[in-house]
Sequence to fold (285 residues):
Amino acid sequence: MARMKFICDSERCIECNGCVTACKSEHDIPWGVNRRRVVTLNDGQPGERSISVACMHCSDAPCMAVCPVDCFYRTEEGVVLHDKDVCIGCGYCSYACPFGAPQFPSTGTFGMRGKMDKCTFCAGGPEANGSQAEFEKYGRNRLSEGKLPACAEMCSTKALLGGDGDEVADIFRTRVLSRGKSSEVWGWGTAYGKPTSGAPKPEEKATKS
Amino acid sequence: MKVILSVMALLLALAACERTQTAPSARKPDAEPWVGAATPFTAPGWKPGDQASWESQIRNRAASQNEYASHARPRE
Fold:
């Protein structure tokens, strides 16, 4: 299995914040903590674009590199998680993260600067899968229930895709080809390989749907 | 000159004896997701403990996000 990844399709995101709500509801996230949020560029102007942002579970995660107590780990599926029992709430990870993913609850351990909290790709933490201890510290462990992250599965326009990196890249590639675009899209080759590889041609699929 | 060189060589040799200053991580080990969870919310269609069936389940679940594909199926 490839690494778990999120992709947000800015052509489809309608800034409904359904992903944010799904995340907060699924994990019982406290007020003031946003594991996921929707960012809008050129808001109110023609051509504005929105994308849903959370931890991107980087392959070479800067948060892992700077953590002085080594509380981060990466699962076999490529999900970056951390152990809250080891975290000292120093905040280095929040400075290192280019996406602003690490959050610091204002209540609980360490008061105004609590232990770091972030998107877990709905994979919980090092506590027993599906246990109450895991839920209280990290939220639901949907991966161990055979499900994908709630934000992606709840997205009404399917702008936010989550799952096996090869699978979501194929879905996104098919969409971009259907829109009549291909390798001129910025970063295409770097992110998704050759446009012709992977998914079947969009014309074939259009006739079946 | 000989004394200085001897002292430098001694210091160099002693530097190699320095203990590592990195403490082992106190992180707890995590269970694999395909092991499953003791909750009544486990999705049907796969067998907890079977890695291949979990991977297949996750791939099918991801594929269901693709409305262009004929193999996309509604989630259970």
